[in-house]
Structure formats: structure tokens, C-alpha cells
């Protein structure tokens, strides 16, 4: 039977294939879909051109994050079954189509089309694209899962580093009216489709009998929080560990995304009544700087977690993050460098949390269905994608209606974020190793997934079960 270009069996790596070619394939997708973090550059021109409030202009971004979590949760099993090339192609089609539909909405004055296109259709592309390489990377780098997922996921955090100045330049060139915004969105859709196609063509999965270089990890060398067993996605969601980690991710994301979605207008408002006001161009540069920090944090902190452990690094994200929010609330408006440095720290923890969570899941639940479990966990991102911007925008709008200006627009929401991070810190402390009653049997855990892959590759499932059983020892 002939196999399509997107079939998993067409992308099994040949002997000698370098696993270091896989992270660039993942990066090509994550750098593209990471454009979502530059949405705040579109907010002011959209509010002016379509007569929107700050809360309304956040809706496409909020729906996009909601759809990211939902599509990742419902699509995780399909991604594992059909393979990363199929997933990357689906992401390419949805993400690029979302820009084109949003452009049509701006051109015709129909804001609901902007929300549907960028947030709804594009959000599905975000979710499928986000999880498409994660399971594959963990299989290629079982010896360094934090570093591997950090390399790829830093692309999602760094997408705005490219998109923010690029979008700002196009809006300056094409105009910040409806026609110019629509043209900018069309260019985005076409350019990202071409860029993401590189990842679709390059991605590979390891052969069933492939092993990483160096000695295999044994139970004696594994940390207490790193399991040598496997838990299915169905059983994982029944454990308290999953839901504690869900709370941790949700609250860490809420705290970070509240700043990120409102970054450009926030820094302008904070210093509007001071002797050092921030211009719109500098605010766009601030968005790009946060993107750089977000991206760097994903690699640096996730790699650090391979050394100090996932639980310890989340203690840093949540505890130090709360302290930095306190600095912004009390002294942020007194000094631009203080505000910028504190925001950069928060965004580094935000990005690090995303990059570390797949390795945390692998430590707790094994590699059997880690991609599907990761997809289900990303529903926390959906909740945070609504909660974070809603807190910051709703508080700012209400404070503005009460006649307040400058940093006073955000003080209340900053203290709310501090409380949420402290709750997340407690949830992380409650995480313990998964009870053995949730583990898959020796012949029913890792073997079925690998047996399926081997059947597609060589039609010899019995040989796969034996070789993969040996790999888990």
C-alpha cells in the first residue's frame, strides 16, 4: 500500500540521521506560531480603526489561547497516532488561514471575523503546532528532555522577537488604518506558510530500535521524582499530580500572559505621567525584548531543570515571580530600568514554565503517552489565556473609568497576580511521585505504543515489543 507524504512511516529516520536536525524542524513551526505573543502590537491600531476597547481588542488573542489549549487536548492523541509531519501540516494550514480570514474581517469592518480567524481557526493551528514536536523531541533526547523541549519551545517564546518589529514596520509602511492592517495580516499568513513548510519537510521520528549515545539511565541513577514506569493519558488525569501541575501551569501562565498581552500599552501608561514617557516605537521594542527574555528563559531554565530537578525550578518560577511582581507594584513607575528588568524576569519564568512542563510530565508519567498528557495539560493554558488578559484589561478599564491614570491602572491586578503565584507555589509543593497503582503493566505500558510504530515501519510488532521492553530497563 502506498503511503502519503504525511504518513508517519515516511519520516522514520535512516541510520546515521543526526538527532540535532530535529530541533530546527520544531523551531520553524514554533517561531511562526509564536507570533501570537506580538498581538499587543496590533491592539492600538485595531482599537483606533475599528473603535474597540482594550478588552475587546484582546478577544482574538484570548480565543487563540483558548483554542490552543482545547485543540492540544483533543488533538494530542491524533498527533501521537499520525506523527509530527501530519500535525505540522495541519498547523500550517490553520494558522495561515486564520491570518487571511482576520484580514478579511479588518478590510470589511467585521470584527467577529477577526476573532474567528485569528483566534478560532488560527488558535487550532497554535495548539496542534505547539504539541507537534514535543513527544518526538523527548524520544530523540531521553537523556536531556528539558534541554530538548527548551530548544523547540523557546521558538514559540521568541516568535514575537521577529514578529513585533516586523509587524510594526509593516504597519508603518502600509498604514495603521483598516487597509494597512489587512495587508499586514495577509503578508503574515503567506510568509508563515512558507516558513513552516520547512519544518514539515525536515521532521523525522526515530526508528523503534534507535538508542541515544552514551550509557542508558538506570533506576539507581534516576532521581526520586523521575519514574521508570509509564502512565497512560487516561490514568494520568485521574492522579492528583496531574491536577496539581495543571494548577501550577495555569497560574504561572496567568501571571506572565497578563503582562505579555498588555505589554506595549502597559509600559506607555506606567510612565505617561512621568518625566520619562515611553513612545510607541520604544514600547514595540519592549515587546520584542520581552520576547527575547521569554525565549531565552525557555532554554536556560529548562536546561537548568535537567540539573536541579523540575520541582526546584518551579519553586524559582513561582516564588521569585511573586517577588518581581511586588517590585513592579511598589517601585515600577519610579524607574524604567526597574520596570523593564522585573518584567523580563517574570517573562523568563513564564517561558521557562512552558519549556519545563513536558519534562516534568515525562518524569512523573513516563514517555508512553506523554504527548497526549501534555495536550490535556494545556487546557490550563486555555484558562490562563482568558484569565490573565481579563484581569489586567478589566482592572485597567475600570480604573480608567474611575479617573485613575498611569501605574494606578494596574496596581490592583499586580497584587492579584502575586496571590495567584503563591497559590501555584503551594500546588507545586504538593506534587509527589505517582502511586504505582496508576502505572501500566510491563507488557501494556510502553510496548503498545512502540508496537504500533514498529508495525507501521517494519510490520514486525513482536520484534518491537521485545526491543522496547529492553529499552525500559
From TrEMBL:
Stretches for region Disordered: 436-473
A Pfam family reported for this protein in Swiss-Prot or TrEMBL: MFS_1
GO cellular component: plasma membrane
Membrane topology: Multi-pass membrane protein
Keywords tagged on the record: Membrane, Transmembrane, Transmembrane helix
TM annotation in the entry: 20-39, 59-79, 86-105, 111-131, 151-169, 181-203, 242-260, 280-301, 313-332, 338-361, 373-392, 412-431
Keyword Transmembrane: yes
GO molecular function: transmembrane transporter activity
Compartments reported by the entry: Cell membrane
Composition bias, Basic and acidic residues: 450-473
Top-level division of the source organism's lineage: Bacteria
Major location category of this protein: membrane
Alphabetized InterPro entries for the sequence: MFS, MFS_dom, MFS_trans_sf, Proton-linked_MCT
Keyword Cell division (UniProt): no
Domain Major facilitator superfamily (MFS) profile: 1-431
PANTHER family, A to Z: MAJOR FACILITATOR SUPERFAMILY (MFS) PROFILE DOMAIN-CONTAINING PROTEIN-RELATED, MONOCARBOXYLATE TRANSPORTER
Protein name listed in UniProt: Nitrate/nitrite transporter
Protein's organism: Actinoalloteichus fjordicus
Amino acid at each position: 500500500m502506498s503511503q502519503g507524504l504525511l504518513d508517519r512511516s515516511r519520516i522514520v529516520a535512516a541510520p546515521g540521521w543526526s538527532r540535532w536536525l530535529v530541533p530546527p524542524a520544531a523551531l520553524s513551526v514554533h517561531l511562526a506560531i509564536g507570533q501570537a505573543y506580538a498581538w499587543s502590537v496590533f491592539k492600538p491600531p485595531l482599537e483606533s480603526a475599528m473603535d474597540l476597547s482594550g478588552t475587546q481588542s484582546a478577544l482574538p488573542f484570548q480565543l487563540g489561547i483558548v483554542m490552543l489549549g482545547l485543540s492540544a487536548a483533543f488533538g494530542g492523541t491524533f498527533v501521537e497516532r499520525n506523527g509530527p509531519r501530519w500535525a505540522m501540516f495541519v498547523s500550517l494550514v490553520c494558522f495561515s488561514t486564520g491570518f487571511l480570514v482576520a484580514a478579511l474581517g479588518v478590510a470589511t469592518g467585521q470584527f467577529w471575523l477577526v476573532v474567528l480567524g485569528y483566534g478560532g481557526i488560527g488558535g487550532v493551528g497554535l495548539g496542534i503546532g505547539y504539541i507537534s514536536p514535543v513527544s518526538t523531541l523527548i524520544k530523540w533526547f531521553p537523556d536531556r528532555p528539558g534541554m530538548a523541549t527548551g530548544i523547540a519551545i523557546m521558538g514559540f517564546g521568541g516568535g514575537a522577537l521577529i514578529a513585533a518589529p516586523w509587524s510594526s514596520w509593516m504597519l508603518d509602511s502600509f498604514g495603521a488604518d483598516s487597509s494597512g492592517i489587512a495587508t499586514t495580516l495577509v503578508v503574515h499568513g503567506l510568509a508563515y506558510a512558507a516558513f513552516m513548510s520547512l519544518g514539515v519537510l525536515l521532521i523525522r521520528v526515530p526508528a523503534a530500535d534507535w538508542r541515544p549515545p552514551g550509557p542508558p539511565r538506570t533506576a539507581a541513577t534516576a532521581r526520586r521524582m523521575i519514574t521508570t514506569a509509564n502512565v497512560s493519558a487516561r490514568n494520568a488525569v485521574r492522579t492528583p499530580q496531574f491536577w496539581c501541575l495543571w494548577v501550577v501551569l495555569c497560574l504561572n501562565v496567568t501571571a506572565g500572559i497578563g503582562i505579555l498581552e498588555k505589554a506595549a500599552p502597559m509600559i506607555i501608561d506606567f510612565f505617561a505621567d512621568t518625566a520619562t514617557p515611553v513612545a510607541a516605537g520604544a514600547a514595540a521594542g519592549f515587546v520584542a525584548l520581552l520576547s527575547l527574555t521569554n525565549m531565552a528563559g525557555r532554554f536556560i531554565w529548562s536546561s537548568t531543570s535537567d540539573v536541579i530537578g523540575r520541582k526546584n525550578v518551579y519553586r524559582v518560577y513561582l516564588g521569585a515571580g511573586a517577588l518581581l511582581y511586588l517590585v513592579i507594584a511598589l517601585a515600577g513607575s519610579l524607574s524604567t530600568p526597574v520596570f523593564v528588568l522585573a518584567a523580563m524576569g517574570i517573562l523568563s519564568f513564564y517561558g521557562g514554565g512552558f519549556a519545563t512542563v513536558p519534562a516534568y510530565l515525562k518524569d512523573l508519567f513516563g514517555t508512553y503517552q506523554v504527548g497526549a498528557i501534555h495536550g490535556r495539560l494545556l487546557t490550563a493554558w486555555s484558562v490562563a489565556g482568558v484569565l490573565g488578559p481579563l484581569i489586567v484589561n478589566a482592572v485597567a478599564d475600570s480604573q480608567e473609568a474611575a479617573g485613575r491614570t498611569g501605574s494606578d491602572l494596574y496596581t490592583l491586578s499586580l497584587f492579584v497576580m502575586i496571590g495567584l503565584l503563591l497559590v501555584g507555589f503551594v500546588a507545586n509543593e504538593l506534587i509527589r511521585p505517582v502511586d504505582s497503582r496508576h502505572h501500566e503493566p510491563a507488557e501494556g505500558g510502553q510496548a503498545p505504543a512502540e508496537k504500533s510504530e514498529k508495525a507501521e515501519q517494519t510490520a514486525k510488532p513482536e520484534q518491537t515489543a521485545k526491543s522496547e521492553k529492553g529499552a525500559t530497563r
